[in-house]
Amino acid sequence: MSTKSNRQILTRGKNYATKQAKKFGADEVSFNKDSRLDYLTGFHKRKLERKKKAQEFNKEQDRLAKIEARKKAKEEKKKQMDEDMRRFRESLQIQQDIEENVNEGDGDASDSSWHGFDDEAEGKSCQGDASSETDSVKPILKRNLTAVYDNETTVEIETLEPNENFEYLAQINNVKLEKAEDVLNESVTRAKKYAKFLGMADADEDNKKKKKQKKFRYLTKNERKDNQRKAYNNKHRR
Description:
Layout: H1 6-10, H2 12-24, H3 33-41, H4 43-112, H5 120-135, E1 143-144, E2 156-157, H6 166-172, H7 180-198, H8 200-208, H9 221-235
Antiparallel strand pairs: 1-2
């Protein structure tokens, strides 16, 4: 093994640096004046772009969170409805079983004993005389209810129909039509006062007023120096 000269030993680091530069270095370095000018003068522009992207990202995250919350609420509501329907069907089945047992017991009792004369005919005749007077009066609301106990329950409600005997029915129910408008206005006024007392009306008025946004302003060079000096003094205070 030949010994290395002093010159080789001293220039060994330089040779290594040259080899690394050739290995990883660039063949040519060119500067574009337009790109350099755009980079040096576009700090504020890029800052605004980053701020806008961050706002869009946060807005998208809020939208996804609201969608997820609505989805969970919908699923919980569906589960609650299924549970209520199951309980309703169970209670309906129990009620049907009880009615069947009662009907069987009544049938057995009616076959074995005599209960006297039937008073239902006399009651119906008396009720027919009493209801003959009220049949001529047309009711205010007419409501037809149709119940289906298999899987669904359907309710049909008809709207208010014009009634010629409205004043007569109001008089029977002790309702004074001439004071209806005054009572309605008084109720509305009382509701407004109560809402104002609870603070609901004030909140609506405040929401209508647009809040004045504070104008953004960059600090001057002297203001930044003063802030840095204050921060340094607070940090090194004994």
